[in-house]
Amino acid sequence: MFEAPVDAWYVWVGLAVVAGTAASVVTAMPAAAPPDATGAAETVDVVAAADHATVEERPLPNAEAMRVGVDSLSLRGPGGTTHARFGYGPVTPAEDGPLAAVLHGTPPERAFDSPAAFRRAAAAERDRRPRWTDADRLVVRRIRWEEVDVVLVG
Fold it and tell me: How many CA atoms are closer than 13 Å to the CA of 36, on its beta-carbon side?
């Protein structure tokens, strides 16, 4: 009594709308998982909260680009873009130049003339606007050189 007849036009229109919606949802889904910005930010927090100089590396398997700010990290990949804030900070982005050399293991006394020069370079880098760089791994290093204490991220 309350059945819809199969030959009614509105049944076929409804089925077409449902099928079209389902197809668009399936094709709009990303093929890859988004990068894990939260896990990367937790790695930064572990190093920043340490009582001593330390270094940590974390692979970024789903990320193609990374943007590091003084208080947050963004990762971009085929699955989308994700963002996370640091619990500890501020950190110092180190993407190029002498700060990047220190991040990757060069002692600060070899890369800079004095602790004051190291401090000025870190402050200048923190004042720069964050920019996207290529990413395959995250490196975080806490450096203490005399009275200078910074967390380098790149």
Answer: 11
Q: How many helices (DSSP H) and strands (DSSP E) are in the chain?
A: 5, 8
Tell me whether the omega of the peptide bond preceding residue 90 falls within 30 degrees of 0, making it cis.
yes
Q: pLDDT per position in the chain (154 positions), as tens? A: 566 666 666 777 777 788 788 777 767 666 678 899 999 999 999 999 998 889 999 999 889 999 999 999 999 999 899 999 999 879 999 988 999 999 999 999 999 999 999 999 999 999 999 999 998 899 999 999 999 999 999 9
Domain map (residue ranges) of the chain: 37-153
Q: Do 77 and 64 touch, CB atoms closer than 8 A?
A: yes
pTM: 0.79
* Secondary structure E strands in the chain: 54-59, 65-68, 72-77, 80-85, 92-93, 132-134, 137-145, 148-153
| Contacts for 70 with CB less than 8 Å, ≥ 6 apart | 89, 90, 91, 92, 93, 126
Do residues 87 and 50 make contact, with C-beta atoms less than 8 angstroms apart? no
C-alpha span between 36 and 40 (Å, rounded): 6
